[in-house]
Amino acid sequence: MIDFFRANQLYIVLAIVLLIWAGIVAYLIALDRKVRKLEQSLRKD
Amino acid sequence: MKIVRAAAITLVTLVLVAGIAIPMTASPKGWLEFPTIRGLEQNARNIFFHVPIAWTTLVAFLVSMFYAVRYLQTKRAEYDIRSVASASLGFMFCFLATVTGALWARFNWGSFWNWDPRETSIFILLLIYGAYFTLRSALESEETRARLSAVYAVVAGLTAPFFLFLMPRLMGGLHPGSKDDAGGNGPVLDFKMSPNMLTLFFIGLIAFNLLFVWMLDIRVRVGMLEDYRTRHKD
Questions:
Q1: Taking a C-beta distance cutoff of 8 angstroms, is the pair B63, A29 a contact?
Q2: What is the DSSP code (8-state) at residue B37?
Q3: How far apart are the CA of B226 and the nearest CA of chain A, in angstroms?
Q4: What is the pTM of this model?
Q5: By CB count within 10 A, which of A30, B64, B91, B154 is most buried?
Q6: Nearest Cα residue in chain B from A22
């Protein structure tokens, strides 16, 4: 695995970009949950 | 905000595509070729993503501090919402800068974590802001929570430039720009960015900051609605 990344460095760049993307997605999912909770509490009324 | 959103999406896409797709050659001809940086090779491309993320961290923490000061001046709940929203985004960017840096370090410095001054300082910053969210969740009274966390955010925001800019430059380390790294000729690599790399790097800085502004806007709007909901529950 390590040797593969060493030989194909562009994949390290890809992994780093994917990590950033994963972080942003995780934040968006958390935000999505907040909005859903708000919607549910509004629907109860 | 529509312009910010369009610019953020366009510029981040541009940086992602150009940062990965522009080929690297030993003797670049023209703007569509990057020079090979000895010791980094393809890994040099991480500069376009890892560094802007770290910069955005600082911007987010300073924005959080600004709104904390505004809260203390006016006692308006809106500023507390803005301050915590910015701090949460700053924490996310801080965490991403740490994780991407650790992965990069594995392949250029030999291990995921080396306790280089910049790694140490960003870790402390994560702890400081981790404590900020713990403090917030521990306080029940809204007014006390907003007031105490605003004071904390001001103190924490003051430490951020010190940890991200000053300390890593005052001490010797592995990152470019450390004390023993005069003129960018660091202990591990001969690091100089060509004009086209520098341009893309600055576009990256602007792009990720615009992305932050857009995400902050969404997070603040959700915060405002939550606040409205808790005030008008009955």
A1: no
A2: P
A3: 7
A4: 0.89
A5: B64
A6: B96
